[in-house]
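Appendix B, record 7
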Amino acid sequence: MTTTPSPTSSAALEGHGVERAGHPETRGIDLVPAEERAGRPRQLFAVWAAPNVSYLSFAVGGTLILMGLTLPQAVTVILAGNLLWICTGILAASGPAAGTSGSVISRAFYGVMGNKIVLVLTGWLMAAAYLALNWSAASVAGIALAGRMGLPRGSAVDAAVICLIAGVTLLIAIYGYATIVRLYAALSVLLTVVFIVVTGYVLAEADWSYAPARPLGGTALLASLGIGFTLVASTPLSYSNSPDLARYLPRDSSPFAVAGWTALGAYLPSAGFTAVGALAATSLDMSDPERALESILPGWFVPVFVIAVVVNTMTNNGMTAYSASLSVQSVGVRLARIPSVLTIGVLGTAMTLYAILVFDFLTSVNTMLQLVVVVTGPAMAVAVTDLVVRRNRYNGADLLRQEHGGPFWYHRGVHWPGVVALVTGGLASLTWVTTSFWTGPLARAAGGVDLAIVSGMAVSALVYWAAVRVLRTVPRC
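Structure tokens (predicted):
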């Protein structure tokens, strides 16, 4: 039940009212008061489904077959890699508990000052890189559609398409939480319908008896399975922003329901459509996913598919830009949330222009997805471990205190167990990662087997748990 805040409520004193769909969100990282919290955990299903009805899933699924995996092997990797959405769901449960953004909650594991340094990497640069990755996917499709409409090909038109897509995406982030919840509920249905139609045509063309010309075995098979797992699992690991979309729920919301609806909403479309991409590659050349899929679609449906790809990317990046703007504030930059959105948007747009006009799209996608897990895997492991150790007991008011001697100041503003766990996990992951331009020494010694995610997350979780137990920096709840 939603209550109407009185004129003397904390929301009124801070200049905030109840956030409404269709109006720019005014709240930044400040605490969401109880009278402005409403909704049920199940609404998170559509919020997470819409951005994961994704064209990139088709591309990643196709890549698994191009790597030499059989269809059963590819599907096994897809189902296993997407299980890491459970981590995203668990992290979402801290949103209602704290009532503030994930970039503030992370002060609990890195300290007030340590968190600022970590957020520059995970909240700014990483967010801008993912904006560029997804905008690149949309831009490839949008540029092709512009060509179908008779517009001349060239860098100027390409840049205009990229900037248009980026501009509309940033509007979603500016309008914020209430608009995202309302809009994504409808878009998740529409996008699913379009992608199911595409799936129907893929199933009709799929070679169910497909076998690679040279089946992999031994170390070569293990290497491909490891790289494939890293590609698939990199997506859920990138969503450390799940508390941001859950913080407006009532504090007494079931953490199991919050975690479950978040994970399920992301898992089902991500796993399903990545598997469709693998099926498509049994009969199509998925080295150019857009052209391959368009070749089996009727002409009238191709523009519908392209528009769906662009819209899906906007939903994905709308969430990313929204959370990145909160990270900017959490670091201490004195910008309101909307200028923060624009700042991150400009950086992401610049990276997109470089990726599209300079690099090959699919190469950019695969390289980035394999490499970012060196940071995102350990960061996710630290966050989930802290939540488990604290039993999800976060106090938003305490987290927002940044003064010397505050509850999350720790030692000179740094919580060393979190920082050391992140660094050691990252180093462990780096030794096991395999990309087109860097192979870690342990991965090289093992014949190219990629264990970046498993090693990085295991080391970070173990180091953090052991350190807080020995140093007693986290109170036992």
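Remarks on this record: Residues 5 and 387 are 31 Å apart (CA to CA). Residues 1-17 have pLDDT under 50 and may be disordered.
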